[in-house]
Amino acid sequence: MCSGKRVWKPQGTAVIEIDISSLEQEIIDELFRSVTYIKMCIILRQSQIQYLRMPNLIQLYSCEPGRPAFTIEGNMQLEVIEVSPMFEWQISYEPFTIIYNPALRQYPPLQQCKYCVYEHNTSKSFFGNECC
User: Fold this and answer.
1) How far apart (Å, rounded) are the C-alpha atoms in residues 29 and 3?
2) Buried b / exposed e along 108-123 (16+ C-beta atoms within 10 A)
3) C-alpha 130: how far from chain center
4) What's the farthest any 2 CA atoms get from each other in the chain?
5) Cα-Cα-Cα-Cα dihedral of 58, 17, 80, 76, to 10°?
6) Measured distance CA(46)–CA(9) in Å, rounded
7) Which of 19, 72, 79, 106 could make a disulfide contact with 43, Cβ separation 3.0–4.6 Å?
8) By CB neighbour count within 10 A (0-12 exposed, 13-18 middle, 19+ buried), where does 64 fall?
9) What is the phi-psi region of residue 117: left when phi exceeds 0, alpha when psi lies from -120 to 50, beta otherwise?
10) pTM for the predicted model, two decimal places
11) Is 105 exposed, middle or buried (0-12, 13-18, 19+ CB in 10 A)?
């Protein structure tokens, strides 16, 4: 996998999407400890983790235009999302979609992000069957 690598990006024009939802906290910590650059789509949905720490992450790019690079949704125990204080919001287009993570108390300064989606306590069921 990508553990220990500082740059995560596909070869050539390949599109990579990974779902880390079933990974345990220790593996998530190890995966994201050193990474500084990511170009892929990552999904974290209905996981059991409490912390998503990416202390060295500076650049985050989506795998495809119009998709968030990181979808974080329905994680009932997730309390913290952390990126580097030097994260480059102006060049990281559509980095995060963060929906319904009710325990979340610490997250990146999303007001600096033009195309991030953040809905603290909104679940899909709120919208009925017409959404998603």
Assistant:
1) 9
2) beeeebeebebeeeee
3) 25
4) 41
5) 170
6) 25
7) 19
8) exposed
9) beta
10) 0.84
11) exposed
pLDDT tens per residue across all 132 residues of the chain = 565 667 878 788 888 999 999 999 999 999 999 999 999 999 999 999 999 999 999 999 999 988 999 999 999 999 999 999 999 988 877 899 999 999 999 888 888 888 889 887 654 433 333 333
- For 89-121, the three-class secondary structure string (H helix, E strand, C coil) is CCCCCCCEEEECCCCCCECCCHHHCCCCEEECC
